[in-house]
């Protein structure tokens, strides 16, 4: 691939007066300094035009769709290597800026989009446009980690498509403010500065209201408000807002200490004003501010900054690099500014921290980050042209599943049982054992019997069974769960879910274990432990018990209990379900897919179509929630636990969710014969192999180890007992699936139950 030679930028451009125009121009100039041929496609609003300098070669009137198409032709005919789109709501025409798609949909080169705003709660039109823009983009750039989080959780964007590149800043020496104060007419004063286009959301009123308290401690203080009123505000309301501020100043009697400079200044003048201030303040009124160029510039010049805690400020000013005050808190902002103005050593220390930490944000370095993103976008376009896809397919039908490796599982066991946790791949004895994981391990031992796989050693299977036997507390008629490394039980009875899961393992063991004697043991303990489930309130405990009963249900009492448990789940979904929330509870938690799986399996065995249909309906809904726009499996993250009727958060993702989804989808395939369920199972398994939000494999195919999950920015490098057993259980099912020929299930489809 040849080096990148030509880059075009789409966005506002100077001399249009706005922050996006300044950003686009600064970024273009920084890129051009690397001997790259650059061009700008400039947006005009409300029929206005501007006397643009080079390198603006094309203009778009925001409401004229034909201008967007004409700009696309200009870019395609100009053979640009990549297009850098600056996106902000309000720049482009159409509902929520939808006109920009008329341009993007026609481009023949990759697009890298910089999102200057990422809405946490978009309306339907805003969400639709945002999703279409990011789908059309090879890479998406945000300027704060909060932006990355929102793209992942709200817009389901895969992590490997997102870049976080800080807002650029000019290269400027660390200087004391005295010389600039004298030059600009503020000598002998302590100067507080706010700059930027004036509008009501900037919170200038709060700062004005704080001036009397500041003046009581620092009588020489001057508050300088530098910036023209926002053009849109002037167009709709004239200068009414600015006039209201000056009236407020007079009412407070601080007119000799507040100066409004109604100017939109060039960069050199702006840097002079920043360099003269002692404290820079951004008193914005709400947190939904993803990026602030004014904050970045002041921070980059080594200014002591006081700010409200909007998203960008919280990230930039943490760890003593600035001061955060509550929104709209006049007393707090006054106290903090007065404190800095009267404490020179503290102010100077803050300035030095800010300046030192901002060196990576200079436009030179920011341009290098963008150039790297452009190159990545171009490489992705070349790969897509060769393979027909921008990412590898999940578990191609022609590719065999991995071989089963149990090395890590064996290393996680001692003569007591399976350890809960590991530090990287080393067993962590400090957390001991639990019946949950040993029950899962017994399920795995049963799953490897009769499938052509190499069985676990009989002694190891016996060890898992022995742990479960020891966990049984006959006095409480319950299973204990947690055991310390010194073999002390940490409770008299474990959770309802751990009891239900152990019943499930016993039921499967009673049916499938290789040892006749162990099958008899499991049958007896299953019968002894089963009655407790009647008193439980946990839907997951009911589902686990139903899966055990599906494997082993030989008595009239057990059959009756199975019906009651299934009816409970059916009753839950009937009570909770709405058209857009097809689930058993008001929130999503862990092992979610086990609930529909239990209903499907029970309905098939008992020939109860109502159970099967409810299970399929809820599983389809869950499957949709757990599918990204890029077609990846994204399990409900543990950060969602406790949320009520809201879209699930993406992280932290855990292996047991993929395992549950695989089992449930294969149960659905056996129920209705739809081969799409097999595809869904394969897609969930591909999550282990790297088709996930971080494009990172979770498993070590040589040892069978599995990482404990995906955080927002990295995999969890620990490889505990739950994770390795979850992976091996999934692998056993996928390998069994690979042996089944054709698209038809071995069991009767759902329609046969209605016959």
UniProtKB/TrEMBL annotation:
SUPFAM superfamilies: Six-hairpin glycosidases, UDP-Glycosyltransferase/glycogen phosphorylase. It comes from the Bacteria. Residues 182-355 form the Glycosyl transferase family domain. Pfam families: Glyco_transf_4 (PF13439), Glycos_transf_1 (PF00534). Residues 19-169 form the Glycosyltransferase subfamily 4-like N-terminal domain. InterPro entries: 6-hairpin_glycosidase_sf (IPR008928), Glyco_trans_1 (IPR001296), Glyco_trans_4-like_N (IPR028098). This is Glycosyltransferase involved in cell wall bisynthesis. It comes from Bosea robiniae.
């Amino acid at each position: 691939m040849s080096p990148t030679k030509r880059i075009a930028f789409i966005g506002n451009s100077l001399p249009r007066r706005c922050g996006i125009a300044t950003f686009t121009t600064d970024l273009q100039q920084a890129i051009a300094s690397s001997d790259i041929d650059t061009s700008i496609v400039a947006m005009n609003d409300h029929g206005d035009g501007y006397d643009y300098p080079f390198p603006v070669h094309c203009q778009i009137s925001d409401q004229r769709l034909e201008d967007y198409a004409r700009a696309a032709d200009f870019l395609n005919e100009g053979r640009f290597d990549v297009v850098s789109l600056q996106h902000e709501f309000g720049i482009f025409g159409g509902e929520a800026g939808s006109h920009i798609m008329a341009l993007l949909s026609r481009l023949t080169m990759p697009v890298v989009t910089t999102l200057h705003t990422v809405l946490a709660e978009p309306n339907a039109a805003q969400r639709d446009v945002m999703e279409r823009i990011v789908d059309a983009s090879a890479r998406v750039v945000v300027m704060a980690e909060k932006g990355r989080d929102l793209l992942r959780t709200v817009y389901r964007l895969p992590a490997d498509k997102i870049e976080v590149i800080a807002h650029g800043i000019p290269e400027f020496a660390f200087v004391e403010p005295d010389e600039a104060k004298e030059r600009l007419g503020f000598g002998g004063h302590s100067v507080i500065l706010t700059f930027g286009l004036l509008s009501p959301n900037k919170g200038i009123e709060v700062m004005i209201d704080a001036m009397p308290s500041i003046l009581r401690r620092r009588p020489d203080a001057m508050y300088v408000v530098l910036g023209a009123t926002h053009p849109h505000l002037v167009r709709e309301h004239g200068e009414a807002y600015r006039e209201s501020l000056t009236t407020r100043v007079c009412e407070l009697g601080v007119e000799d200490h507040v100066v409004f400079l109604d100017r939109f200044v060039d960069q050199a003048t702006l840097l002079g004003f920043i360099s003269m201030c002692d404290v820079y303040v951004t008193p914005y009124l709400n947190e939904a501010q993803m990026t602030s160029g004014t904050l970045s510039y002041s921070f980059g010049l080594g200014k002591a900054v006081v700010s409200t805690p909007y998203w960008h400020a919280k990230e930039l000013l943490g760890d003593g690099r600035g001061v955060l005050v509550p929104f709209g808190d006049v007393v707090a902002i006054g106290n903090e500014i007065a404190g800095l103005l009267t404490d020179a050593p503290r102010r100077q220390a803050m300035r030095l921290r800010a300046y030192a930490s901002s060196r990576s944000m200079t436009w030179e370095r920011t341009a290098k980050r963008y150039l790297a993103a452009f190159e990545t976008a171009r490489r992705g376009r070349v790969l897509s042209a060769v393979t027909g896809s921008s990412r590898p397919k999940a578990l191609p039908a022609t590719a065999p599943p991995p071989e089963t490796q149990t090395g890590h599982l064996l290393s996680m066991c001692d003569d007591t049982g399976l350890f809960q946790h590991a530090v990287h791949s080393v067993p962590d004895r400090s957390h001991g054992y639990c019946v949950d994981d040993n029950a899962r391990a017994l399920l795995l031992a049963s799953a490897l019997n009769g499938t052509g796989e190499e069985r676990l050693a009989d002694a190891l299977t016996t060890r898992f069974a022995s742990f479960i036997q020891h966990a049984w507390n006959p006095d409480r008629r319950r299973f204990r769960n947690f055991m310390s490394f010194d073999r002390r039980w940490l409770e008299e009875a474990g959770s309802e879910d751990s009891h239900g899961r152990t019943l499930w393992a016993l039921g499967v063991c009673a049916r499938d274990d290789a040892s006749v004697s162990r099958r008899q043991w499991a049958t007896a303990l299953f019968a002894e432990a089963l009655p407790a489930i009647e008193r439980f309130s946990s839907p997951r405990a009911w589902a686990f018990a139903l899966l055990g009963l599906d494997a082993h249900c030989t008595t009239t009492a057990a059959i009756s209990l199975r019906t009651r448990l299934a009816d409970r789940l059916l009753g839950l979904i009937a009570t909770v379900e709405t058209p857009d929330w097809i689930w058993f509870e008001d929130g999503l938690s862990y092992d979610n897919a086990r609930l529909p799986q239990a209903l499907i399996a029970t309905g098939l065995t008992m020939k109860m179509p109502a159970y099967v249909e409810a299970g399929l309906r809820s599983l389809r809904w869950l499957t949709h929630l757990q599918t990204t726009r890029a077609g990846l499996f994204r399990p409900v993250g543990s950060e969602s636990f406790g949320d009520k009727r809201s879209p699930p958060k993406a992280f932290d993702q855990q292996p047991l969710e993929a395992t549950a989804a695989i089992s449930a989808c294969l149960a659905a395939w056996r129920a209705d014969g739809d081969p799409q369920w097999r595809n869904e199972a394969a897609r969930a398994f591909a999550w282990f192999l790297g088709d996930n939000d971080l494009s990172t494999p979770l498993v070590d195919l040589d040892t069978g180890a599995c990482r404990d999950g995906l955080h927002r920015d990295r995999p969890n490098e620990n490889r505990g007992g739950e994770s390795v057993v979850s992976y091996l259980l999934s692998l056993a099912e996928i390998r069994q699936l690979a042996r089944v020929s054709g698209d038809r299930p071995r069991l009767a489809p759902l329609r046969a139950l209605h016959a």
